[in-house]
């Protein structure tokens, strides 16, 4: 991790050299294996088992069961926490076949040669993947946002670095994505106006002291709090996606002062924990992910997902292919990637507030009210159920922030691993322990 502070050109050269060496060795070993053995035909008839490592966001049992039924393969989900997953994936690429997380993991995975390029010619719906992942903009008028917008690290360049020029080889399959903000209980916090009065600064507003929680993730929570501190006028960043050590020192000095005044009620580690914080009255507002808001509304707790005037913190899901995945399992991995973009999975995750890169494939599987609410920002004329089967949207509701295009056009920053990641990690834990 220490070389993350090196210039990007130097990093790319190092990565390219390391990966070229890795690829040459892998090709040699593969060739020797092919010469010495030939798998019996019966092996081709064996049902492959696909090991999918990732987070609980996408590794849901309903998805696993549906994919196995549709594809006729065995699928094993290996869910875990962000830090745990990155560490295991970068050091043990043989422990998984498919890796599902977010774009802020790509640079580490690629640098470690833990993943291999994905061939777009084997992706059935590549041409239908929308512009967000390919250009950084869902519409010409949209703001790209700071940090690692997906298009910046999507394409494998001819020198084996990652960049914007399309080559037919990509580092990840773009699929699930969304914009995040904070949720607040309107029984405790006066309802704001989307894009006007709702603000990240609320996370550091003294009137909510002792009733605020933040996600315990050094690559996510840090931006929620940085956006709050800057919006409140406590600090001004040159580039929030690439904070200097001096800026990190100033930011965490501010945050530690807040913490010592007992401003924060907790730091949640999972979506269920964030739900508990709000349902039990521990907090009035907190960093949140869309499924938590949906679940709380399903429990009858009036939580609004803010549309901050400063813009959202955006994330894009990545589906990666292990560098050690080969043969029939690799074929199954491509089948699984294609299945994810074929319609059903996109409709399923839409009901918890997430988007898919091929939305038109999912549209026929959503009711007119569901599509209107989740994608078009229209008022629904009937109650809508979440993935848990509970009503999460009442008749007459409109999605906060509006349509897909409007929400994805207001991005302040993307989840990003900064060049000073090691130092920011150190400061984050100092903050938690203060």
Any overview of this molecule?
This protein has 434 residues and is of the alpha/beta class. It is 37% helix and 18% strand. It has 16 helices and 17 strands. The strands form four sheets. Strands 1, 2, 3, 4, 9, 10, 11, 12, 13, 14 and 17 form an eleven-stranded mixed β-sheet that branches. Strands 5-8 form a two-stranded antiparallel ribbon. A two-stranded antiparallel ribbon has the order 6-7. The chain is globular and about 65 Å long.
**Average predicted confidence as pLDDT:** 90
Helix segment tally = 16
Q: Tell me the distance between the termini.
A: 25 Å
Helix content: 25-40%
Low-confidence stretches: 1-44
Q: Which strand-content bin applies to the residues?
A: 15-25%
User: SS-based structural class?
Assistant: alpha/beta
What key attributes describe this structure?
single chain, 434 residues, alpha/beta, disordered N terminus
State the gist of this model.
With 434 residues, the chain is an alpha/beta fold. It has helices at 8-36, 41-44, 61-71, 82-91, 106-111, 131-135, 221-231, 245-260, 271-279, 290-298, 327-340, 344-350, 359-362, 368-374, 404-408, 421-433; strands spanning 49-54, 74-79, 98-102, 115-116, 118-119, 155-156, 162-163, 169-170, 173-185, 212-215, 264-268, 285-288, 303-305, 312-322, 384-385, 391-393, 411-414.
